[in-house]
Amino acid sequence: MAPSPKCQGKACPVPGAVPNGLIRLYSMRFCPFAQRARLVLTAKGVKHEIININLKDKPDWFLEKNPSGTVPALETSSGQVIYESPITCEYLDEAYPVKKLLPSDPFERAQQRMLLDHYSKVIPYFYKISMGKKRGEDVSAAEVEFTEKVSQLNEYLVKKKTKYFGGDSITMIDYLIWPWFERAEMMGVKHCLANTPELRKWIECMFEDPVVKATMFNTEDHKVFFNTYMDGNPNYDHGL
Is 19 exposed, middle or buried (0-12, 13-18, 19+ CB in 10 A)? Predict the structure, then answer.
């Protein structure tokens, strides 16, 4: 029987062993970092099961498996555990070689890792702006900085002259960047993208991707969860 989609808290029992032929993803339905792994699993057609974790009331058994306490985390049928979102995604691409998402060329792989490193410095602004607005703070300086950083992403696409960050088809880097742009309207940063035409085209293309459609939530669901998160009582099971 498939695990319940409802989040597992401290009182929940230890799950059984991962069935042969499957890999298990420890996730949280609204977490953008965990969505990275869900996107890769879906894109590659990897058979998997998902156990959602209550991140405010983490089970002891989860912390024993993954001392960082973060999602996503993967567990294999042999009990191996892998965590941190870029690492889990690279692991999946190597362990399941069908439909490779990372480029075969070493320089192109290095380019994607360098771009991901740059993007890791952009992610905090999504939260700084959205949380600041929720608290009634002045976020104008953060918006200026964020606009400059997304303009660099736009320039990257201009120079590359392709639809996606890795070329003319979706690759790993697109899925690693995507989850926060899915939430751009909900997080109140969409207006910062006004002068990034190539980036906006990329967003439109990503919204049409069947893998994105299969893993995404609509803006209203994101808003409901985010509001409960900001109020200190996140509703991880919203919509279930």
Answer: exposed
**pTM (2 d.p.):** 0.97
| Mean pLDDT of all residues in 96-112 | 97
Beta-ladder partners of 82: 74
Task: Pull the structure tokens for residue 194.
Answer: 């006004």
119 close to 179: Cβ distance less than 8 angstroms: no
Q: How many CB atoms lie within 10 A of CB 183?
A: 24
* Closest to 134 in 3D by CA, of 60, 216, 226: 226
Q: Give per-residue pLDDT as tens, 46-58.
A: 999 999 999 999 9
Alpha carbon distance, N-terminus to C-terminus of the chain: 18
* DSSP 8-class letter at 13: P
Assign 9 to helix, strand or coil: coil
Instruction: State residue 4's pLDDT score.
Output: 85
What phi and psi, each to the nearest 5 degrees, are found at residue 53?
-110, 135
What are the tens digits of pLDDT across the range 111-153? Answer: 999 999 999 999 999 999 999 999 999 999 999 999 999 999 9
- Work out the mean pLDDT of the chain and round it to a whole number: 97
Catalytic residue among 7, 31, 89, 192: 31
Distance from C-alpha of 116 to C-alpha of 221, rounded to nearest angstrom? 27
Q: Sketch out the chain's domains with CATH numbers.
A: 1-100 (3.40.30.10), 106-208 (1.20.1050.10)
For residue 192, indicate whether it is catalytic. Answer: no
- Sign of the alpha-carbon torsion through 114, 116, 120, 125: positive
Which candidate, 227, 226, 225, places its Cα nearest to that of 239?
225
